[in-house]
Design goal:
By secondary structure, the chain is mostly helical. 75% of the residues lie in helices and 1% in strands.
């Protein structure tokens, strides 16, 4: 009997086979972009002058364009029109908000200080990553893990909008107020609440508005099916190109620091690795304790564990510059997040099989 070939959208296909080529090899593309950036910085010493030739409010125009390109396609995927339906399961909504905006930032704050007490720039960069909550990329992990697709889209929409109001406030709290209460040294953390707010408004507010308008106008003109199946796949790679361009630029400008301190990336990676594993485990456990079924448990876990590293990179560059340690910490984020969350998809599917095989009690 001939075997049928699994397609990327086939639920029976292996996890990696159900990912697009771009998503499947994202860590590889990031590593290649890092290498290309280091080579560019070494052999084209004038790259800094070229990038800084045109600036907007202190940010290089090419870099700003790359940051906006990272955000727009993923925000055009969010189903804003279905946010009102989330009220059907208030338990899931409140659990997601608590995990995303209380547990997640607090956990990253603790890990950043535990692993990098002597590296304020990298520590701050990690905290900035922890404050940037789930973005549309978590829809990929949720689909692969057989989570609730509609619930995931709604949670991403709610958290994307919530970030506009909450990010700067939480940034001030975790970067300045809380360390001050604990008596920890924070004089080396130079930032302003307005600076963070401005970066969020520019690099999240603009693509969020553009994504919302694109979706609304696109569905009205071509219909939901054509918009989802034809338009979104065409603009999707733009986000990856923007990310890779930003990484090339950052490593071109930071090559001397990176090659001179080879353990830097490893020190940043360890707390990130611990964060993604712990955050997912805590969220999965809390969702099961709250009585959610597997599909919504997986959805809450992945939307809580996934971070908006695009926004974190944008805020770090906007606040501290492209050559800052904060920005470098943001770039390491997706390098660690992608393989860890792919591994957690396998864990989720294993738990799903156990939960479905468990006998029901009457």
């Amino acid at each position: 009997m001939a075997r049928t070939r699994a397609t990327p959208t086939d639920p029976a296909a292996p996890v990696l086979a159900r990912m697009s080529t771009l998503d499947r090899f994202l860590p590889v593309w990031i590593i290649l972009a890092m290498v290309a950036g280091l080579a560019l910085g070494r052999f084209v010493p004038d790259v800094r002058d070229w990038l800084e030739a045109v600036k907007i409010d202190g940010t290089s125009l090419p870099i700003a364009a790359g940051l906006l390109a990272m955000m727009y396609p993923v925000l055009a995927k969010v189903r804003y029109e279905e946010i009102g339906h989330l009220a059907r399961d208030r338990r899931m909504m409140w659990l997601s908000l608590v995990l995303n905006w209380v547990v997640g930032p607090a956990l990253m704050f603790a890990l950043a200080w535990a692993f990098l007490p002597d590296e304020p720039a990298y520590r701050t960069g990690l905290i900035v990553v922890g404050l940037a909550r789930c973005i549309a990329m978590v829809l990929i992990w949720n689909d692969l893990a057989r989570g609730d697709r509609e619930a995931a889209a709604l949670l991403v929409a709610v958290n994307s909008i919530f970030q506009i109001a909450a990010y700067a406030l939480l940034g001030t709290f975790y970067l300045k107020i809380l360390p001050g209460w604990l008596g920890w040294q924070t004089q080396d953390v130079d930032f302003s609440m307005w600076g963070i707010t401005k970066a969020v408004l520019i690099f999240l507010g603009i693509p969020l508005a553009a994504g919302y308008l694109t979706r609304r106008i696109g569905i009205r003109r071509v219909g939901a099916e054509r918009y989802e199946q034809r338009f979104l796949p065409r603009i999707g790679p733009i986000a990856l190109y923007g990310l890779l361009f930003t990484i090339v630029v950052m490593f071109a400008l930071q090559g001397e620091t990176i090659t001179g301190e080879p353990l830097t990336v490893a020190r940043i990676a360890l707390p990130l690795l611990a964060y993604f594993a712990l955050m997912w485990t805590i969220s999965f456990w809390a969702s099961r304790r709250a009585g959610l079924g597997y599909d919504r448990t997986a959805t809450v876990a992945f939307t809580a564990a996934g971070n908006n590293f695009e926004l974190a990179i944008a805020v770090a560059i906007g606040m501290w510059g492209v050559t800052s340690g904060q920005a470098l910490a943001g770039v390491v984020g997706p390098l660690i997040e992608v393989p860890v969350l792919v591994a957690l998809v396998y864990v989720a599917l294993w738990l799903r099989r156990r939960m479905l095989a468990a006998p029901t009690t009457t």
